[in-house]
Structures are given as C-alpha cells and as structure tokens.
Amino acid sequence: MKMKKWFFGVMSFSTLFITACSSGRGGEEGNSAEEDEAINIGSMFELTGSASAYGNTQANAVQMAADEINEDGGIDGQEINIEEYDTQSDEAEASSVATRLSTRDNAVAMIGPALTGPMQAAIPNADEAQVPLISPSATDDDVLTDEDGGVHPYAYRTGFTNSFQGGALATFANDDLDASKAVILGDNSSDYATGLTEEFTEAFDGEIVSVENFSEGQNDFNAELTNIEQTDFDVIFVPGYYEEGGPIINQAREMGIDEPILGPDGFGNDVIYDLASEENMDNIYHTSHFVLTSDDPDTQDFVSNYRENFDTDPDMFAGLAYDTVYLVKQAIEETGSTNSADINAGLENIEDFAGITGTFSFDEMHDPIKTVSIIEVQEGEEVGTSEVEPDIE
Amino acid sequence: MEAFIQQLINGLSVGSVYALIALGYTMVYGIIKLINFAHGDIYMIGAFVSYFMFLNLKLNIFVTLALTMFVTAFLGVVIEKVAYKPLRNSPRITALITAIAMSYLLQNIMIYVVGPEARSFPQIVQNKTYTLGNISINQMEIWLLGTSLVLMVLLQLIVQKTKMGKAMRAVSIDAKAAELMGINPNTIISFTFLLGSALAGAGGLLVGMYYNTIDPMMGATPGLKAFVAAVFGGIGVIPGAMVGGLLIGIIEVMISAYGNSMIRDAVVYLILILILLIRPSGLLGKSNKEKV
Lengths: 393, 292
Known about the structure:
The structure holds two protein chains of two kinds.
Chain A: H1 2-24, E1 39-45, H2 52-71, E2 80-86, H3 91-103, E3 109-111, H4 116-129, E4 133-135, E5 155-157, H5 162-175, E6 181-187, H6 191-203, E7 207-214, H7 222-229, E8 235-237, H8 242-255, E9 261-263, H9 271-276, E10 284-288, H10 297-310, H11 316-335, H12 340-348, E11 353-355, E12 358-362, E13 368-370, E14 372-378, E15 381-388
Parallel strand pairs in A: 1-2, 1-3, 3-4, 4-5, 6-7, 6-8, 8-9, 9-10
Antiparallel strand pairs in A: 10-14, 11-12, 12-13, 14-15
Chain B: H1 2-32, H2 39-56, H3 61-84, H4 92-114, E1 119-120, E2 129-132, E3 135-138, H5 139-161, H6 163-173, H7 175-180, H8 185-211, E4 213-214, H9 220-233, H10 238-258, H11 264-278
Antiparallel strand pairs in B: 1-4, 2-3
Helix pairs in contact in B: 1-5, 1-8, 1-9, 1-10, 2-3, 2-4, 2-8, 2-9, 3-8, 5-6, 5-8, 6-8, 9-10, 9-11, 10-11
C-alpha cells in the first residue's frame, strides 16, 4: 500500500512536470523542417508483437513510398527522412513513440499505427504536440472520436471505416444484385460486426428477413444455417472475418444454400479459400481497400515495385500505408509549408487525393470518403471488381 | 417438424464430439478424482497430428485415425507420468492447478510451433449430401456420428468385458483395496489416460475433417463444454459422459435454432451450475455420498 502511494506520488509529480514542459512550448505551434533540411516523417508500426504481420508490410510500404519520392526529387526539392519506430503492438509503447517522434525527432507528420488500440493511445500525444497522426488501417468506427463525440484535431485514417463498407455492401446488394430480401449472419459480440450490421440494415432498401448470430471462435454454423435455409431470401450478409467466414461459406454451400454471400474486408485473406474449400467459393462478394490485380498503372507500379523490394505480393494494408505517404506529400505541397499545424490544415482540406486505394477527401470526422471496391468470386476465382460510389448525403 | 429433425441431426454431430472428449474427463476423474483440464488440448493436438499426417504421409483415413490415436495416447501417458504422478499424494487442488498449467503450456507450445492462425484441414473424404425428403445428412456427419459410436461401444466393451476394464473399475471403487488384490494402480491409471487421450485424438481428427479448420486454441471451448457434459451426465460414469455429451450438443443447437445464439454458451454453463446445485452426481450418477 505504501509502495503504491509512493508510486502515485512520483507519477503525479512527473505528470505535472511534463505538463509544465509542454505548456512551455505552447507558442511554437508544432514542428517544421528548415528549408535546407530533410522533412522528418514518423513511421510507427507494430514491427514485433501480435500484429507484426500488419505492421511490417505497412512500414515497408512507407519506406518504399519515401524512397520513390526522394528519387523523384523530394517534395518541392526537400528530401523526406523516415524516422522508423516499433510500437511492439503495445498501447503504452505507441503512446511514448508518438511523444518521442513529435518532441525529439521533430517529425512534421506521423504515419501509423496499424491497430485501433495503439492508435487510440497515441492520438492524445499527437494532439498535444500538434503533429498530425494518420493511421492507414485503424478501421474501428470510434477511433478518431473523443469522449464528447467530436473529432481529435490531429488524427486521421486512410482506410474506410467498418460501418462505411456496410453501407457500400447494401448499395451493391440493392443495385447490382437486385436483392429484396436479405439475411444477416453475424457475430453480434464484436464491434466490427455490429457496426457493419447497423449500416447495412440502414442502407438496404429491401427487407431484412432474418438475423442470426454466432460467437467468436465458433466453428459449427449448421444450426443457424438450417434456420436460414427455411426462409425465403436473395442474399446473405456475413459481417465477420475469414476465420468464421470460411467455415460459414463451406457449411452453407454443403447444405445447398447457393444464394450470393456478401462479406466485408475481413474476408480479404487467401486462407478463406482453403477454409471454405475452393469449389464452395462461388457467388461470393467482399469489399477490399485495394485490388491487387487492378489495371490502374499506379497500382501496377506499386505492386511490381513492392515485389522487387520485398519478394512478396503487397496486401491491402501495404497499399493503404503507401497512399498515406503520398497524402502527406500532397498536403505539404498544397499548403506550401512544412509546419505540422499547416500540414494538418492541408490534410483537413485535401480534395480528391488520387491514391492506389481509391480517390478520396476527408469528411468532418477525418474519415476518408472513397470508393469501395467489391471483389466478385466465382468458382474459386476472383472474376471481377465493382466500384461502389460513396453515398454522400 | 422436418426442421426440428434436421436440427436434431446437427445437434447429434456436435454432441458426439463433446461425448468423445467427455469420456476422457470422466474416466480420469473416476480413477484418480482429477479433472484433467489439459484434456481439451490433447484433442487439439490430435487434430494437428492428423493434419500433418494427412499432408505428409498421405495414408488412408483409418490408418491415420489409428496412428493419431496412438500418438495422443502416448502423449496422455507421458503427461500423466511427468506432471500428475509425482503429485499423486499431494492435495487434490495441486494436481488440478497443474492440469490447468499443462493446458496453457500445450496451447502455447502449439502457438509457438505451428503459429496462432487457423489452418484449413485437407479434404480426405469427398463430402456428399444425402437427402431424405427435406432432411439432409452429409457424409462428414455420418463419419462423425459413426466413428464416435463405434469408439464408444469399443470403450464400453473394454471397460466391461476385459480384465483391464475390471481392474479399472476396481481401482475407481477403492484403489487401496485393489492394490491389495494384486492390481498395480499405476498401470491402471496410465491405461486410463491412454484410453481417454486416444479418444480425444480421434475427436480432434473428426472435428478437423468435419469443420475443415483447426487452430491451437480450438481445444479450449470444447474442452470446457465436454467437462460440463461429463458433470451433466455424472462425472466418473462412462455412459453418463456419452449421454451428457450428446445432450449438451443438442441443447446448444436447439438454443441457436429456436432461441438466441448469444445466450447459447451461457445456458451451457448455467446447466453446470444447476446440476451441481440440484443433482451433483449428474443424470446417471449414483447418488450415494462419497465415503470420507
């Protein structure tokens, strides 16, 4: 007990001290690069730890984008210098890396982290230092929102939110599949699925005839699917990840349910083909942030460049991280300043940024309004992509 | 009505796996009064062993099943010798805690060795669906139910008709008296772990085949549910584990089908609490009080 009091004493003292220090530099308004210096951009990703699979591809893509920009002469003649840190998939570490980048390394913008939790932990420090922080892939709806429902002034993301794709899938079901009756089979204990379900339900013009639920880690869906089979419907929406999506597709198709199945970006992992078994991956549509096989020349350049550098195919997370660097570049060019607060204003007002993951601007909540790609799978092969335009009211 | 029968078939498939795992819990408990929480993870290892055998050895399903059961049986015996035997005379709680530690150890070793991600199981049996009216049953379900039934009958024969089985029953009633009669309890205990782990291994293979997906955490939930099934049927009673397993499977599916699947797991654990309060010896358990 005594130990604890002592600990809290030190903690509150050091908090006071830190607050005093940072208020001392309040007049400066963020970081800038001198004209003859390189522009420091922070890269903070999960290079080790549970999310290292996401973090490493993103950090690679960020470095690759910076090298490309420097080869082409930098931003208005100034080179970019990437300061790379490992957040260890840890929230406390992400928070201290954000502070270090913004106060010691003079970063004018920070890119990362990949996950929602570390992003949330890092945002207050970005706000405090007035240095924009852009996560390529934190898709949870509320990441950028503060406790009063407003947006954190220095936080952004490049990937569309969970619920945004729910709306896009509903539009796709309405317009492209002509569906009038939908069934939802989702995990209603996850934020991911509930956000998706809500948006889908709202945007779907037809009738939701049945909603079935499952829980994380479940692998037997026969009970739910038998119920679904008894109803009359045109399309099944499965808001979930490939771990459950694969077995659901497998069991549904084995049961003889052959209606189209719609899924979110969580289906975007090749393991789903094994889990569902290839012949069952038929009549499946899922969203994706990025389409590897797109014939857009920028995308093709990115894919071949990435393969050359890292000997593997890039995934959508790499695509998002790559776009984020060019997004910062555009903000610097448009504002003509390397001051982090100016860059922030530039990001806020960015219009029609044309990236490989789509063309977008930010809405007032700093979420990108972008086209959603929907990949169509027939007989175990990706046969095409449809673009769904965002529904802007 | 047809939908109901279809759901009953679904429930039997799920339940037969619980029954296979529950048998291991119940036999070990019957003999040494230990709830072997590592049992669900032996089932998981069974799934991985058969996965690698199918991939690398490409043997037929019966040989793979036999080999998998052999490997998990061996593992079960080793675990007993290394982790539980030295604690035979310690308080029961010590062995219980060791069992929990063993469960996490196995899970984490497998996460380290094979990685945490879900893998797809090779498809060995061409899955055909047979329909009768509106009721359909597929080949996997027939495999699952059939194999479980055959193994359970075999087990019952071993326990009731063989000398080893007779010795098992004797040790479970009174280990000291059995020892005086010339039975070596250590051999019997090892034999029990061997039988139980072999059945769990078979369960792992069948589930891998049926659901087409395996991962190192797959043993945790079915392990707990099988434990509930064992208690439900009467822990220590072999037919009780079978009945308990099948009933828990059917109850789960019926709740998903006609109730709310959110409360499915809650109901299963509620059954555990209710059984312990109302009929601690379980459905088929003898209600005589344990001698102190």
